[in-house]
Write a structure and sequence with these properties.
134 residues; single chain; two-stranded antiparallel sheet; Ribosomal Protein L22, Chain A; three-stranded antiparallel beta sheet
Length: 134
């Protein structure tokens, strides 16, 4: 690897040490439904995002709330000397990727079968201080 690339890789690694990441794989919800919930909390303060998720009527918000609590716990484990209340944490990034799709057949008229895709997704949350947010 060249010098320029190694310097850039070191910068990315150093920036990644400051943030807390949590990932939830193979959630049995379609990515489209999960993205609606992810869009609600993107860029929000952590406490406000937890309140929004707790009182949301969408089923996908339960998994995202649990994942956000995990990201906060990961941040607390990295930064042992700091208090969560004083840290001014925000949801820096949240993104939803498509997971595997289970293919099923549903009976249809005249002996046919229609294919049903039971989709799943992967959710990733990155939590950071507001001070270091770019």
């Amino acid at each position: 690897m060249g010098k320029r690339k190694s310097i850039a890789a070191e910068k990315r690694a150093e920036a990644r040490k400051q943030v807390a990441i949590a990932k939830l794989n193979n959630v049995p919800t379609s990515p489209r439904k999960m993205r609606l919930v992810a869009d609600m909390v993107r860029g929000m303060d952590v406490n406000k995002a937890l309140d929004v998720l707790r009182f949301s009527s969408k089923e996908a918000s339960r998994g995202v709330e649990k994942l956000l609590r995990s990201a906060i716990a990961n941040w607390a484990a990295k930064n042992e000397g700091e208090r969560i209340e004083d840290a001014n944490l925000v949801v820096k990034e949240i993104f939803v990727d498509a997971g595997r799709a289970l293919k099923r057949l549903r009976p249809a008229p005249q002996g046919r079968g229609h294919r049903i895709l039971k989709r799943s997704n992967h959710v990733t949350i990155i939590v950071d201080n507001l001070d270091t947010k770019n």
